[in-house]
Please model this.
Amino acid sequence: MLEVRDLVTAYGTIEALKGVTLSAKQGEITCILGPNGAGKTTLMYSIACILKPVSGSVKVNDTEITGTSAPHALRCGIALVPENRLVFHSMSVEENLMAGAYTRLSSDRAGVQADIDNAYARFPSLKDRRAQIAGTLSGGEQQMLAVARAMMSRPKILMMDEPSLGLAPLIVAEIFSIIRQLNDEGVSIVLVEQNAHKALQIANRFYLLDQGRVTFSGTPGEIGEDDFIQRAYLGSKVA
Model:
């Protein structure tokens, strides 16, 4: 479904991605691990066409989207939940949801309203705060809003950049439960996550990104064969 080949993205003369190749299959959860500064967020922004790569290819269902535009990537089925949530702080909860459906507003108003109702059914606390300014929500509520906003585009691939960052353990557990639920409903997930233990409990495949390159890939079961990953990211043997 998602194919990334030899992707190079640079900030000026500094290459943040140095020929990244990976794939995410339909219906699976693909996890990207890596230390701070490895290029994980740059990779997500490049796939979502927020950043324009220097070279390489990004395809969704064999459709080339490399270097087009974020609205085009969205129409092709890619939605991003960015790191630190980045909700529209001065807008209400419902206005944020409407913004997530901006590519559909002129052609599918009834469908957009139905999806807003579905978002409130999935996240009841957001329904109670539908008129509240998003910047006044708790961190966990903002993360739920960011997920709900991304789902308003009806994505085939939901990319999530550090969804557990800065959240309390109970909220983290809830977020991962939501990720599982979305995947069970048929949404493919590409997940960047520092909480390797949590991520590998739900992932079908993982990639390790380090200094802009993929240095390891495999299934969660195969992680037990690599002592370095165990020590660096998990701290112990994986059962």
Remarks:
- The beta strands are 2-11, 14-24, 29-33, 55-60, 63-64, 78-81, 157-161, 188-192, 205-210, 213-218.
